[in-house]
Amino acid sequence: MTVAEQKVTWAQIAQIQSLSEAHDLLPRMMPRKNDDPAALRRFHEKSAAVYQRVAEIDRGHHHEALYWAEREARLARELGES
């Protein structure tokens, strides 16, 4: 089993300390395209919170992490409107 195939939990994601880790782990939690839209919205909401927290921890990538936090929040809002 490759690293990319390993199961990830939200508890592990709560331990993320860098933008690189967020980019590595969050996509593995993303629901499939045909899953419930509410599940996809929750994923984007949780991802936004992770990136917001990472922005404060990984100061060298502060602005980039804020961009990703806003992007994920926007995607969650858009799913909530549909």
Report on the architecture of this protein.
It is built from 4 helices and no strands. The chain has one domain (17-81). It has helices at 10-13, 19-29, 37-57, 62-81. By secondary structure, the chain is mostly helical. Helix content is 68%, strand content 0%. The protein is flat, with a radius of gyration of 13 Å.
* Spatial extent as radius of gyration: 13 Å
Structural class: mainly alpha
Low-confidence stretches: none
Outline: flat
* Number of separate structural domains: 1
Number of helices: 4
The run of helices and strands is: HHHH
CA distance, first residue to last residue: 37 Å
In helices, the fraction of residues equals 55-70%
How many β-strand stretches? 0
Mean pLDDT: 92
- The portion of residues forming beta strands comes to under 5%
- Main sheet characteristics: none
Give me a quick take on this structure.
The chain is an all-alpha fold.
Topology of this protein?
Blueprint: H1 10-13, H2 19-29, H3 37-57, H4 62-81
Helix pairs in contact: 2-3, 3-4
List keywords for this structure.
flat, 68% helix, 82 residues
